[in-house]
Specification:
Chain B: One of its GO terms (molecular function) is protein serine/threonine kinase activity. The complex is a heterodimer of chains A (286) and B (140). Chain A is α/β, with parallel strands linked by helices. Chain A has 12 helices and 5 strands. Classes of the chains: A alpha/beta (286), B alpha+beta (140).
Amino acid sequence: MIAGTNQTVRDGLTEFLKIRRGDIERAWAATPVFTSKRPADAAEECAELLSGIRQVIETGTEEDPSADGFSAVRTVLGSLASRSAGGPSGSDRPDVTVLKAPLLRLWGEQGHDEDVTNAGALALSTAINTLRIAVLEIELSAGADTILSQRQQLTELSTPVIKLWDGILAIPLIGTLDSSRGQAATEALLQQIVAQQARVAILDITGVTAVDTLVAQHLLKTAMAARLMGAECVISGIRPQIAQTMVQLGIDLGEVATRATLADAFSHALRKIGMAITRSDNEPGR
Amino acid sequence: MTSVVTLHELRIREEIDIVHVRQTVREVAVSVGFSLVEQTKLVTAASELARNTLKHGRGGTAQVELEKHDGSTVVRLVFRDEGPGIPDTELALTDGYSSAGGLGLGLSGARRLADEFDLHTTPGEGTTVSVGFRAGRAAT
C-alpha cells in the first residue's frame, strides 16, 4: 500500500510540505495540541515537527516510529508527551491526531489528480499515525524511567543514619524491609558506626508495617554485626500489634535490647555511654 | 448460609510480588473491619507463606477468599505451588527448623497466627497451604 506510493506522489508531497509550510504551521499552532503553549514556542515546535514529517515522507519511512525524521523531533515529542502525561487523562489530552485534518485539507487544495491526492492523503495519514505511536512510546518509556528512579530514591530514602549524640546513632526503618532495602540500611548503619565511632545504634521500627521472620532475622543479623564492631544495638518502636504478632510467630530477639519508644531507647543509650539527662536548676521560673 | 467469594488471585514469581500480596491482604483486612492486631497477624502470616511459596515452591499463586458464615467473616488465603513438595511436614512445622537458612519459624508461626490451618503436600508435585482468619476473635 505504502510501497505503492510512487515517486510522483512523494515529489508532490515534498513540494507541498515545502511550499505550504507557513500555512500548515499556522493551522497546527491553532490546534489544541499547541494552544496551551506560548505562540513563539508553538511556532517553533510546529516547524520542527513539520520538518520531521517532511523527512519521513521524503525517505518513505512514515511507517517506522524509530525513523530518523521522528527521532529528529524527539524533544518536541517529549514535550508533547510530558504535557499529556501531566495533564488530565482521557479526551482532554492533546492528541497529535488533530494535526491530521488541517494537513489533509491543505493537501486537498493542491489540486492534484484524484489518484495522487488519495495516495498522498494516505501517506500523510500514516505519517501522523506513526507520530502518535512515537509519542506513546516516549510516554511509556518516561513512565518506566520514573518508576526506576523512584525505586532507587526509595532505597536511599529508607536509610538515613542519624547522629543523636556523640557515639549514639539511630536509623529509622520505614515501610517494607525486603532484601535490597534491608541490606542498604544495614550497610549504611555499619559504615556510620565505624565513621562516627558509635557505641550504641538504635534501630527504630516505628514505621515498619509488619515484622515477619525475614525482617526479624535481618534485625538480629544487623545487631550481631554491630556488636562485633563494638556497638550495642537497641531496637525501638515496637508497637503493640507487632509485639503480639512477634510473640505468636515465636520470634525471640534474644540479647538484643528492645524499647517501646525511640525516647526510651535514647535514654538507655545515654546511660550506656555514661551520660544522663537531668532537669536544669537554672530553668526560668524555678 | 455460607458464601465464598474469591477476591484476588495473585502470582508469586519474584520478591516484589510478596510486597504486593501483603498490600492486597492488608486492604482486604481493613475492608472487612479487622482490628489492628488482626490485620498485622494476617499480613505477617501472608508474608511468611508467600515467601515460602517463592523460596521453597519456586513460585506459585496466592488466592484471597472471603467466607461469610451466619454473621461471621473469615478471610482465607490459599498459597499454591508446584514445587518439590515437603518431604517431612512434621519436621517443616518444627520451630527452628529451616531448610533455607531462615529462622525456621515461618510455617509454624503462620500456623499459630491463623485460626485455621491446612497443609497439603505431595513430593514432586507441589504444596498448598490454606490459612483462615476470623474477624472479631478475642486476642489470645
